[in-house]
Amino acid sequence: MGRVSGSTNADEGDGVIADPQSAGTRGASALASDEPGDFGWGSAQRWAGELVDALAGEVVMRHATGRIVLDLGHGAPRVAEWVRPRAASLRVVDAVDLGRGASIRLPFADGSFELVYSLRTLPHLGHDEATSEAAARSLLHEIARILAPGGTALCQIANPRSLWGLYHGVRHPVTVIERGSLVLESPRGLTRFDTLARFGKLLPPSLTLTQLHGLRVFVILPQLLALPIIGRILARLDWYARDRAPWRRFGTHLLLVLRRSHALPQSRA
Fold first, then answer.
1. Vertex 88, ends 85 and 94: CA angle to 5°?
2. Domains identified in the chain, total number
């Protein structure tokens, strides 16, 4: 595995954005002030991505302070910039080094990290439905192995119960109802949607779901951020809804907080 980077200096990262909420709402303001002719789909996607990074990043930073951290997949480089000066150390594994196969093995010893976070990565593993499920299960087993007892994992998944997920599910209702997951072709190769129940079946016994956060509950379509005033209101509503029931369960993405038990995970052949 070639691209594994790290830092043990908690003072690195000068110039980091200290307030993810400001970073996540300024996109709406910028889009709202654009001239109509300057606005495009790319701008909307960029600001929606920044909002998701900020919503997830604030949670990651909350868990990362003073801990030994692994960024697994490096799906949100901005979040790594925020985490680096706060963590005791930060290692990074790029998604390309996870491959597209059904089995994943990370080059770290058992119990190496106190926090592992994986953003925009798990839903895009594999190259078809079978390898997607196998790779997701394999990655979660590896996370359990490299986490220290009592450690925390944060995993971002695509939510079929969101309005965005339901849009896709209308075209594949049997898949969603019977199996609880949905795998679609996407610009990232494929995207896997998992219900909470289905995701729970992928977890090894040593990982327990303890909390969830909903990302992009109200900003269903990126273009909504371009609407004057409304875009800013929706972005702020997403901050409100992220940690509050029942709204958080309808996020386009779910950020799941997993706790590693003190028992050793079962080794895999």
1. 75
2. 1
